[in-house]
Design a protein that fits this description.
CATH architecture of the largest domain in chain B: Orthogonal Bundle
Distance between the termini of chain B: 67 Å
Largest sheet of chain A: none
Oligomer: heterodimer
Shape of chain B: globular
CATH class of the largest domain in chain A: Mainly Alpha
Shape of chain A: globular
Number of strands of chain B: 0
Strand content of chain B: under 5%
Structural class of chain B: mainly alpha
Order of helices and strands of chain A: HHHHHHHHHHHHH
Number of helices of chain B: 15
Order of helices and strands of chain B: HHHHHHHHHHHHHHH
Number of domains of chain A: 2
Structural class of chain A: mainly alpha
CATH architecture of the largest domain in chain A: Orthogonal Bundle
Number of helices of chain A: 13
Distance between the termini of chain A: 9 Å
Radius of gyration of chain B: 25 Å
């Protein structure tokens, strides 16, 4: 019962947030950019004033803001993100076409960074101050300090270029769809995944190590040990589970940052996904595509945060959802 | 007895070495701890060297004889029009895609990176501390509105909005500074708010109130000094974030516009030369990594020096025993984790604050 009410409330606030985002981006673009410059972008630099007028009329740019805004919201509710100014396509089909590449990067990257981050974190915590722990701490600091695109570029120089110079062509840049075969897909995804993992896993290693060390000092862990449970059971059944709470909340915070990371990774590796498309759209001043991307991205963030909040309750029995 | 006589006696007391018991302020203690931290001192040295590198950029240009925007078509490029490597024709770190001296460009890039990093951190800190104090101290509706605002600013796909903003207004230094500051204050605000919530219930605030102190005086004179430690740590750790942010925006082509060099846009130009010019990527990347790493290590060092309770990986055995004892006492997250998680927690006695509505 509590769960249903919680979900309904979160979904309603999620819709409110998305409406705010949509409205904010709409007005940012439609009031801050003068109509003439939009039309000039669309029609080309040498277009005559008559052509400019025609373009403005065609896209409805001369109508008052409330008509345009109402039109925009109405279309949005029907799941229509509008027409790209530059590509002869609707924004929906652009997003549908570029989504697989982005999803591949995101899912593989998140899995790799969570597995790597948590494994190193747990190992460090159970062997606190060992050589492994110290090495992990040093590499974590390096990872935290490194910007995503620098890691990506260094990986290209020191892995991709070296391998391809020696005739090993498994790893590629650019995007190969999964439909073209698993191996080519894996070959183009492996470096982007490693890039995201190096940058992000560091934070999770640090967080899970500290959190697990704190949890291991709690009374109920001593109780579990004194009951004669094996160390493995104490660790995985009792300690790790509740030590994961800060990790999960960090994951909620990182979803926003992850989108930024994906944009950068797609740019570095020439992956034609949503991030690549949005950077192009920004360079061209293709506002409908940018707005569409921002709305899809914020929907993603809102949904991810709801899932994160729900998983708190699953992880830590002390947290009750209300 | 005259006043000079009194002063003389006082100075005698101060100068008497055997009996003087020096009172040390918290900051003196912090500085002493920081001074014995070799890693922190090394980071300070690296940061100072990097700042000198930036300040002396024109001198480096003069010494090498290569102005920052001068394109050396003959000596700076190979016959195929590619960049030349380190050491060729007097280009110490090689040249870039149009034959400009990479060393000089990296030095000028350091000016922009450090300037943006330090300035945006200052703006974000002032904004974040002020709003956090107001939200925490006044509470009620103001707090509710501001807290939702912090949450929104933290949860947002900020780089997407930064992209959108930068695309609407043409890229410029001012826009970059505005965008970075705008997206950096919320984290500081949240922690300052949490701290203020607990500090305002202390007795000395009660005392200040009963003496007739107004809310602004209490916030900035009585509460703020107690928050300077965490704020200093947060600010130091924000500098590398801001430097990275600027580099990322410039890398995506919406930051510092050409031809002004920044580490981000140098690395962005280098994307086409992965196979032929490793130096074009490696040297600016190293400059960026060294800078961010130094600030991160310094931030960690300052945190350890301010809050000796936090865990130290290279700490001595006595320190370790204390930490173990603290852990056994069941204290919650360390400041480190509180900063990472952005959790609201009373750092003075380790008890968690009233949780927010969802938990």
């Amino acid at each position: 019962m509590g769960m249903v009410r919680f979900l309904v409330r979160r979904i309603l606030t999620g819709i409110l947030v998305m409406w705010l985002v949509a409205t904010g981006t709409f007005f940012l673009f439609f009031t801050a950019v003068p109509v003439q410059s939009v039309a000039r972008n669309l029609a080309g630099r040498s277009a005559s004033p008559a052509v400019l007028q025609e373009v403005i009329r065609y896209y409805g740019l001369d109508r008052p803001w409330y008509t345009q805004y109402g039109h925009f919201l109405n279309e949005l509710i029907h799941g229509n993100l509008g027409q790209s100014f530059y590509l002869e396509e609707s924004v929906n089909s652009i997003i549908k076409q570029d989504l697989p590449a982005t999803i591949s990067v995101v899912i593989g990257g998140v899995i790799l960074w969570l597995v790597a981050g948590l494994a190193v974190g747990i190992l460090s915590a159970t062997r606190a101050r060992s050589l492994f722990d110290r090495l992990a701490t040093v590499s974590v600091l390096a990872g935290v300090s490194a910007p995503t695109f620098v890691v990506g570029e260094l990986l290209i120089i020191f892995v991709f270029v070296q391998l391809s110079d020696h005739g090993i062509t498994f790893i590629t840049t650019g995007y190969n769809a999964l439909t073209a075969g698993f191996v080519p897909w894996l070959g183009c995804m492996i470096l982007p995944w490693i890039t995201l993992a190096i940058v992000q896993a560091a934070v999770y290693t640090r967080l899970s190590r500290g959190s697990l060390l704190d949890t291991l000092g709690e009374d109920y862990i001593r109780t579990a040990r004194s009951k004669g449970l094996s160390e493995r059971r104490v660790l995985f059944k009792h300690a790790v589970r509740s030590a994961m709470t800060p990790v999960v909340s960090q994951l909620g915070i990182d979803v926003g940052a992850l989108l930024g990371g994906v944009i950068v990774v797609e740019q570095v590796f020439g992956l034609h996904g949503l991030g690549y498309q949005v950077v192009n759209a920004i360079a061209q001043g293709d506002q409908p595509t940018v707005i569409g991307f921002v709305i899809v991205a914020s929907a993603f963030v809102v949904a991810a945060n709801i899932i994160v909040d729900m998983s708190y309750a699953l992880l830590d029995p002390r947290v009750r959802i209300s | 007895m005259s006043i000079t006589e009194l002063q003389y006696q006082a100075s005698q007391v101060e100068n008497a070495p055997a009996i003087a018991i020096q009172g040390r302020s918290q900051w003196q203690l912090t500085w002493r701890r920081l001074r014995s931290d070799k890693v922190a001192i090394a980071s300070i040295v690296v940061i100072i060297l990097m700042i000198l590198f930036a300040i002396l950029a024109p001198v480096i240009a003069h010494l090498t004889g290569h102005p920052v925007d001068q394109e050396y078509v003959n000596t700076g490029q190979t016959a195929d029009g590619l960049p030349v490597g380190p050491g060729v024709h007097g280009f110490i770190l090689g040249t870039d895609w149009v034959g400009r001296d990479l060393l000089v460009r990296i030095a000028y890039g350091a000016r922009i990176s450090l300037f943006v990093g330090l300035l945006t951190t200052a703006i974000a800190t002032i904004l974040g501390v002020t709003l956090g104090l107001i939200a925490g101290y006044f509470g009620g509706v103001i707090d509710g509105v501001l807290a939702r605002f912090f949450d929104a600013a933290l949860a947002f796909p900020y780089i997407v909005l930064a992209l959108a903003l930068a695309s609407v207004f043409n890229p410029s230094l001012l826009i970059v500074i505005g965008v970075i500051s705008f997206f950096s204050w919320a984290g500081i605000s949240r922690i300052v708010r949490g701290q203020t919530l607990s500090l305002k219930e202390k007795e000395y605030i009660e005392a200040a109130k009963s003496l007739g102190a107004g809310p602004w005086r209490i916030m900035f004179i009585d509460i703020l000094p107690n928050l300077l430690g965490p704020v200093l740590v947060l600010a130091t750790l924000y500098i590398p974030t801001a430097v990275t942010f600027e580099a990322t925006l410039s890398f995506l082509g919406i930051g510092i516009p050409e031809p002004a060099p920044s580490w981000g846009n140098i690395l962005s130009e280098a994307t086409g030369f992965y196979h032929v010019a490793w130096w074009y990527v490696v040297f600016p990347a190293l400059a960026l990594l060294i800078t961010t790493l130094a600030f991160n290590l310094l931030g960690d060092g300052i945190r350890d020096a301010i809050d000796p309770r936090t865990e130290r990986i290279f700490a001595g055995s006595k320190n370790r025993r204390n930490q173990r004892r603290n852990r056994r006492k069941g204290q919650g997250l360390s400041l480190d984790q509180a900063i990472l998680v952005g959790q609201e927690r009373d750092l003075t006695d380790g008890s968690p604050l009233p949780a927010s509505e969802e938990s």
